[in-house]
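dude i think i finally got it to work??
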Amino acid sequence: MILKAEKNGRYSVRNAYRLFITDLVNLSHIHRSGYWSRIWKLKSLPKVMNLIWRMCRGCLPTRVRLLDKGVQCPTPCVSCDSNHEDLAHIFFECPFAFHVWTMVGMWHEIHNVVAISPSAIEAIFSLLHSLSATLSQRMVALFWSIWKHRNVKVWEDIT
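look at this
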């Protein structure tokens, strides 16, 4: 393989990385025009926006994801003992999540989008696109709360 030099005629790690990302790795599932900027433009805490970014990149350490990566851990949901704790279950399908969305009056909007989306990630992007700025901010704050509840239950056994 021959690497193209920078405009100044020098080879750099940056250039190799750019070549790797653009030519060698298929990242088409990540390229979504305008969607990533919606996450970073939310008026929310950086830790909340980082959580949403991690969710949408598919790198949130759910039990199913950890198992896929070779980490030995139980797969049941800590809130409801369902056998499949993945992104969709934690944030949309778990009875605890349903209770949270119902309490804040957003279940109707959430359910309609989740029902027609092929994945949890697609549902999140669709919700960010279709909800108003206020509802989007509320939604991501609730994502954070649901994730925090899950982690407190996992690590401290506190509900």
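DSSP finds nine helices and no strands in the chain.
im so relieved honestly
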